[in-house]
Write a structure and sequence with these properties.
Layout lengths: L1 H21 L1 E11 L1 H6 L6 E4 L22 E10 L8 E8 L8 E4 L7 E8 L15 E9 L20 E10 L14
Antiparallel strand pairs: 1-8, 2-7, 3-6, 3-8, 4-5, 4-7
């Protein structure tokens, strides 16, 4: 009986770790410096930083609804602001899911919280509660992520349009998005602390 209890005690953490690893994945983890020139010359849209190709997790699921339901889960958003111009100007990054196939608007966006200084900012967002999330056909997956630097004025507040753009550029950030399945809890041990 003692052996059985010890065996269960030893096995439980491995089962928990295995299940938590299966029910979340890092969609992307990028560190980059972004300048006014980058914002002015990004194509096809200004103020955008594009996460494509191998910078997006190649093992992301082709279907976000089954066999694991990420569509009705949460996304853990972590931004580490490594460098920011002086002045404490409120800034945020809008984070847009670009699907393989969309409907309606054709894409959906969540975002970081506003920040005014260097540091780490984290939050969890339900996948059913961000702008235009229903415009993505989640059964057909995501092909890229568009990250957009903005001020605090709302959806159209692209930082490159500001007359005082020097309050936003240059900046250096590390942005990470971890997708967490419905009913699961975010496990920070997945992040590589580089």
């Amino acid at each position: 009986m003692k052996r059985l209890v010890l065996w269960v005690i030893c096995l439980f953490p491995m089962l928990f770790w295995s299940q938590s690893q299966q029910h979340q994945f890092v969609l992307f983890d990028v560190t980059f410096t972004y300048t006014k020139q980058d914002a002015d010359t990004s194509s096809p849209s200004k103020s955008h930083y594009y996460v494509t190709g191998d910078r997006l997790n190649p093992d992301r699921p082709p279907d976000w609804t089954s066999p694991v339901d990420y569509r009705n889960g949460t996304v853990h958003i972590r931004i580490e602001v490594l460098e920011k111009p002086p002045g404490n100007e409120p800034t945020k990054w809008t984070l847009c899911y670009i699907p393989n196939h969309g409907q309606g608007n054709g894409y959906g966006c969540t975002g970081t919280d506003l920040f005014t200084e260097e540091g780490v900012y984290e939050k969890d967002v339900p996948m059913t509660e961000f702008w235009e999330n229903q415009s993505i056909i989640w059964e057909e997956g995501i092909k890229q992520m568009d990250l957009v630097i903005k001020d605090d004025s709302g959806g159209q507040g692209h930082a490159h349009k500001r007359a005082d753009h020097e309050k936003f550029f240059p900046t250096k950030v590390r942005i990470t998005m971890v997708q967490v399945a419905k009913g699961a809890m975010y496990d920070p041990s997945m992040l590589n602390n580089k």
